[in-house]
Amino acid sequence: MKRTPLNKRWSSTARTLAGFSDERDRTLRLLQQYNRTSGTAWTERFSLLRELLGGAGSGAWIEPPFYCDFGDRIVLGAGAFLEADCVIRDEGGVVLGEDVYVGSGVHIYSACHVVAALRGPAPRRLTFPVRIGRGAWIGEGTVILPGVTIGDEAVVGAGSVVFDDVPAGAVANGHPCRTAPLLAGPVALRSVAA
């Protein structure tokens, strides 16, 4: 599958990264505040989330600690929920639909490095958006790579490494992540956790 990078390419030299310093300072300040809030500071947490993220629908929630690059390139649909210890590298944009569940320790990446032979003299990163559809379920410890789209109501098993799209309604797991035959009942839940 061919992926089209966003129009943003940047060199990881100090000169280029200086343009991001104000944005990164803002993000780091908000993340520190968010990750230090007490377990009962619901209003403060939601206020910080709305300031940090590019969008957060009603009831969207992230359990701290949480880490991201910029924050304003992340959009959470209503009812989206991320467990603790999630990391979102959001340079290319990350959109989670309504009622998405993301287990603890999930890493979502929307940027990658150009292969050395293709990049020329300066290291380069390319950005590709990640999209997770409405009602999708992402198991603990999953890694989602740049440019992936996970369809509505899809289930990705714990510990998977997702490098290609997962169709709507599919059950997928493994390293590399592959779509599994659709199962029903308790057997399906056990096979996804495997």
Give the CATH H-level superfamily.
Hexapeptide repeat proteins
- Name the CATH architecture: 3 Solenoid
SS summary, helix count: 5
CATH fold-level assignment: UDP N-Acetylglucosamine Acyltransferase, domain 1
Structural class: alpha/beta
CATH class: Mainly Beta
Number of strands: 20
Number of domains: 1
Low-confidence parts: 1-16, 185-194
Main beta sheet strand tally, sense and closure: 7 strands, mixed
Mean pLDDT: 84
Kindly report how far apart the N and C termini lie: 27 Å
- What amount of the residues lies in strands? 25-35%
How big is the Rg? Answer: 17 Å
Q: What is the approximate shape?
A: globular
Describe the structure.
This protein has 194 residues and is α/β, with parallel strands linked by helices. The chain has one domain: Hexapeptide repeat proteins (UDP N-Acetylglucosamine Acyltransferase, domain 1). The protein has helices spanning 14-17, 21-36, 42-52, 116-119, 186-193; strands spanning 9-11, 55-56, 61-62, 66-68, 74-76, 81-82, 86-89, 94-96, 101-102, 107-109, 111-113, 124-127, 130-132, 137-138, 143-144, 149-150, 155-156, 161-162, 171-173, 178-180. The strands form 4 sheets. It has a 7-stranded mixed beta sheet, with no helix packed on it. A 5-stranded parallel beta sheet has the order 2-5-8-13-16, with no helix packed on it. The chain has a 5-stranded parallel beta sheet with strand order 4-7-10-15-18. Helix 2 (21-36) runs antiparallel to helix 3 (42-52). It starts with 8 loop residues before the first strand and ends with a helix.
